[in-house]
Amino acid sequence: MDGSLKQYRHYRPYTEEEIRSEQDEYFENDETKKALPGLFRDRDDITFRIKDSPLELLDMNELNRLQNSDVGDILEYEKNSERLKMSISLMKKYDRDYKGLIKAFLQEKKLPPPIVIRDKNNDLYLMAGNSRLMTCVSLGYNMPVKVINYRNEIISEGIKINKNKMSKIAKFIIKSHNLNSKIKFGTGKNKGDYEWVSDTITIETNPKSMLDFIESVLHECDHAKMRKKYGADGYEQAYTLSGQVMVDKGKDFYWDNPFEKQARRYEKTAKKWMKKISHFTN
Asked: Which of 61, 116, 184, 218 could in theory staple to 267 by disulfide, Cβ–Cβ 3.0 to 4.6 A?
């Protein structure tokens, strides 16, 4: 359990009417059917699996990589007040009863848990409950979710970028930061990774979009800049100490680490960088 969010303990089973609504959410939602083809045989199968699926508490990493959800974006804000403001803005956009939902959480009313699909690669897709999860996180809580296993892979809208082009773009961005970091491509649980001993940036091979790819490179570039500033040993010590301070405060070593927060803020400059790398994509 992540230290920065408290477990929300007020939940209840789905009513029959709510289950019928989720049946429609799958069978009448082209986007969901496209992402999760063959997940359910029929409406009775949905009813059974919603009732039978276990409750789980997602950790911060899982919440951040949850597909078909705005929770990851909400968590980028440090203060609950900022998170709630963003949640309300999104719920207005989606025409949700945000006032009723906030009131329900504040009064600790029992609500049905969101429904999450986990595929064979442990990737996660939110099928129902985006507003509930956003509001809960914005108020400083983590709500248990119903997890339904999917034997296939979630079909995302990821793009296939030529690896040679990806390498050229990444090297251009790295050089623009006056860095000499090496670049590698691979697959893993994170979009990117930075190995400070060898000064190597590793990026996910199949990003969801070009913007997603640029964000990943910028995030790791920020770590590389700190490594250049402190030196390899100094960076390791500073990063570890910062994480331990967060743990001592009851927070998460990684997600609340100031170095990670800074890198996540920096990656949000990706839209500006899209213009700078346009000559690679035209």
From this structure: 218
CA 216, chain centre distance (Å): 13
> Phi/psi of residue 55, each to 5°?
-90, 135
pLDDT in tens, 77-114: 888 899 999 999 999 988 999 999 999 999 999 999 99
Residues 6+ apart with CB under 8 A from 83: 74, 75, 77, 137, 138
Q: Which of these, 113, 108, 133, 146, lies nearest to 12 by C-alpha position?
A: 113
Q: What angle do CA 233, 235, 236 make, to 5 degrees?
A: 65
- Measured between alpha carbons, how far is 81 from 73 in angstroms, rounded to an integer? 14
**What is the DSSP-derived secondary structure letter of residue 206?**
S
- Name the one residue in this structure whose structure tokens are 């990444």: 170
Q: What is the CATH number of domain 163-281?
A: 3.30.2010
User: Tokens 């609500």 — which residue?
Assistant: 111
Q: What is the C-alpha to C-alpha distance for residues 74 and 96, in angstroms, rounded to an integer?
A: 17
User: Following DSSP, what letter does each residue of 100-148 receive, concatenated?
Assistant: HHHHHHHTT--BPPPEEEE-TT--EEEEE-HHHHHHHHHTTEE--EEEE
pLDDT of 138 reads 94
Domain boundaries, the chain: 6-149, 163-281
Q: Which residues of the chain have pLDDT under 70?
A: 1-3, 157-161, 187-189, 281-282
Return the H-helix or E-strand segment holding 85.
helix 80-93
Identify which of 217, 46, 52, 63 has the alpha carbon closest to the alpha carbon of residue 141: 63
Helices 258-267 and 210-230: crossing angle in degrees, nearest 10, is: 140
Distance between CA atoms of residues 126 and 148, nearest Å: 10
State the pLDDT at residue 157. 58
